[in-house]
Amino acid sequence: MQPPESSVHYSKWDDSSRDEVSMAAVSSTEEASCGRRIARKLCTGKLGKAMKVLGGVALFWVIFILGYVTGYYVHKCK
Predict the structure, then answer these.
(1) What is the band of 40 on the pLDDT scale with cuts at 50, 70, 90?
(2) 3-state secondary structure of 34
(3) Which long-range contacts (CB under 8 A, 24 or more apart) does 50-56 make?
(4) Among 1, 4, 34, 44, which residue has the fewest nearby CB atoms (within 10 Å)?
(5) b/e for 10-32, b at 16 or more Cβ within 10 A?
(6) pTM given for the model
């Protein structure tokens, strides 16, 4: 019997001579649940919407500043 924190997936194709085995192990269920809880909190609800809006505004300003600086040096008079 395998421990609950590891999983093995075995897939055999009828047409192929190869067998595929993939293994995934989670170091700790507590770490995984903590990460999922933080991600769920930051990506859903009012806080998630606020994070997406702030991320969009920050991305806009980064692209704007890069475009401004690039345009300045491209169109600079010699």
Answers:
(1) confident
(2) helix
(3) none
(4) 1
(5) eeeeeeeeeeeeeeeeeeeeeee
(6) 0.50
Q: Euclidean distance between the first and final Cα of the chain, in Å?
A: 75
- Is 55 buried (19+), middle (13-18) or exposed (0-12) by CB count in 10 A? exposed
Task: Report the C-alpha gap between 26 and 28 in whole angstroms.
Answer: 6
Report CA 56 to chain centroid distance, whole Å: 16
Nearest of 39, 38, 60, 42 to residue 50 by alpha carbon: 42
- Residue range 2-30: mean pLDDT, rounded: 58
